[in-house]
Each structure stands twice: as C-alpha cells, then as structure tokens.
From TrEMBL:
InterPro entries: ABC_Gly_betaine_transp_sub-bd
Official protein name in the record: Glycine betaine/proline transport system substrate-binding protein
GO cellular component, one term: ATP-binding cassette (ABC) transporter complex
Gene3D superfamilies recorded: Glycine betaine-binding periplasmic protein, domain 2, Periplasmic binding protein-like II
Ranges where the ABC-type glycine betaine transport system substrate-binding domain occurs: 24-306
Keywords assigned by UniProt, alphabetized: Signal
Length: 328
C-alpha cells in the first residue's frame, strides 16, 4: 500500500499530532488563589487532553515576565496583570519572544463602588450613584451617625488614590459622605462580611474576582458614564490629579502570556490557552470555595473541572474534553 503523507500545515491541525508536538511545558504557579487554580487546571488539561509533559514552576509577576522574555521560560504565565508591566511585555512581543494569548478573566479585573444586593432589592434606586447620593442617610458612618460612610481602600494602596479621586469627582462629600479607611485589606473584606451577616448597610470600593464577591452578592453601582481609559490613566490613577472627572473603572487587563516558542511549537495546546477565559463570578466563587475549604491549587483544579464542565468543555475540542473527563 502506498503511504500518504500529510502536508505540515495539515499535520499541525491533526488531532493525532498534539501529543507528539506538545512535549515539555512549564507553567508559572503564582502565589495567589486565582493564579494557582488556573495553573493547575492548565496542567491537568494539557497533560490529559493534549499529551503534554506539563510542570508547574514557582512564579511571580515581575520575575516571571523577565524570565520569559530573557530565558524563554516558563512557557505559560496563566494570570498576568499587564497594565503595570506593559512596557516590558510589549518589548517581548515586538522581539517575538512573548505572545498575549488571551484573557485570564472574561471581564478583566473589575473594580467599582459596591453595595449589598439586599439593599438594592429594598431600594432599587441605589443601583445608581445618583440614587446612593439621594439616600446617603441609609449609609451611616461607623463612628459618626450624623455623617454617611464610604469604605475606601487602605492607605498606601493604589486603589485608595483612584477611589479618592472618584469620590471627589462624584461630589460624594457634598451628599454627606466621608471616606473611611479600613486600615487593611483584611479589615476591608471583614467590613463587608459583618454588614452582610447582619444585613446592615455598606457602601464602598472593592474589586473582582475575589473570594468576598464570590461569597457575598454585591451590586456594582452605576456611575451613569462609560469608562474613559485615557483620563483614568492620566488623572484618576495619579496622586497629584487636581481635576478628576467621573469615569467608570475601565477593566484591568489580566492576560495569559506565553512564550513565542510554545505558541509556535505546540499550536493545539496554545489554542486551548488562547480560548479559555474564566467568568469573574465563577472565579470569585471558586476563590471563596478555596478559602472555605483551605484548598490548594491542585485540589481546587479538580473541584473546578468536576463542577464546571459546561464551561471548560467550551475551551477545547470534543475529543480533548472526553479525555479530560476520563482522567477525572
């Protein structure tokens, strides 16, 4: 029988080529819950669905980015908050050393001013900032009942600068509000937990995905305007900004970064990495589950794969999904 050979372009697309092509893959396992969850899910799917020899290596944002650019390893940084390292990453891309594979979180990093859902259910107008201002007395200051309280970020955090500028731009002081510094990130989270457990009022800054927003049903207040990323970067994020204007928080870029060599040498595995993006609500729920169960990334990955097959199976071809489910 005459042998038939597939052209290389077709071979790269063949479902039988993935195991041979994938080979060794290193994945940065960063030291926070969402990042270690994604890294462990990637490891399981790449190993069991694509036949990769996947290995987790310790990582952190800046050293991982530098190592990928200068040494070509690790192959994948699953969760990379890109804005603060934009210049380094763009240089790596321009030198054909790195690729932006896709979004780690479907909505990006999400910031905003939030109130508990149970308050919006009682007072639907609180879903807007004008409604909050008109009902400022519903949010008593924790130390002075004659004022209204807005819980801001702890001192020294960048979000204290952005929240402060938006507090001023929205004229919240004129409505009777005063900013309350919680003192720490744990205290900020704790203030939401205490309010929710007692169905008390709460109004302040928070971000997603986080365990807090996975555990407590909060509503992001509508500022009534679209995001203005240019003004946000030029003014709202700058401590010395003197004329802040109202803008919605633009999504923070949270990307998956890969080396160019991984993208080129393992096209099918790269396509999975480029396809997958975690909805913020699902990631927040998983982070809450990890905290409640004191679970590490490996255990959490199994929980995610068992609990969200309707989500992750959309990221891979049907035959790969079947292999992953068999491995579970």
């Amino acid at each position: 029988m005459q042998k038939r050979y597939l052209p290389l372009a077709l071979l790269a697309l063949s479902p039988f080529a993935s195991a041979d092509e994938c080979g060794n893959v290193t994945i940065a396992d960063m030291n926070w819950n969402s990042a270690t969850l994604i890294a462990n899910v990637d490891k399981f799917i790449l190993e069991n669905g694509y036949g990769c020899d996947a290995e987790l290596v310790p990582g952190d944002t800046m050293p991982t980015g530098i190592s990928m650019t200068e040494k070509g390893e690790p192959d994948i940084a699953p969760e990379f908050w890109s804005n603060s390292h934009k210049e380094m990453l763009e240089k790596g891309v321009s030198e054909k050393k790195l690729r932006f594979a896709g979004k780690a979180f479907a909505e990006g990093g999400e910031e905003g001013f939030w109130i508990p859902k149970y308050m919006v259910e009682k007072h639907p107008e609180l879903a807007t900032i004008e409604g909050v201002k008109a009902n400022a007395k519903l949010f008593p200051h924790p130390e002075d009942d004659s004022k209204s309280g807005f819980m801001t970020c702890p001192s020294g955090w960048t979000c204290q600068i952005t929240a402060g500028h938006l507090f001023n731009a929205l004229n919240l002081e004129d409505a009777g509000f005063e900013m309350v510094d919680p003192g720490s990130g744990a205290a900020l989270a704790g203030s939401i937990a205490r309010a929710y457990d007692r169905e008390k009022p709460w109004f302040g800054y928070y971000w997603s995905p986080t365990p807090v927003l996975g555990r407590y049903d909060m509503v992001k207040v509508d500022f009534g305007v679209e995001a203005d990323p240019v003004h946000y970067e030029a003014c709202i994020t700058q401590e010395g900004c003197e004329s802040p204007k109202v803008t919605a928080y633009p999504p923070s870029a949270v990307n998956t970064i890969t080396t160019e060599s991984f993208a080129t040498d393992s096209p099918e595995a790269y396509t999975y990495i480029a396809n997958r993006a975690y909805p913020n609500a699902d990631m927040s729920a998983m982070m809450a589950w990890m905290e409640e169960n004191q679970a590490d990334g490996e255990i959490a990955a199994l929980e995610f794969l068992e609990s969200y097959p309707q989500l992750w199976s959309q990221w891979v071809p049907a035959d790969v999904a079947a292999k992953v489910k068999d491995a579970l």
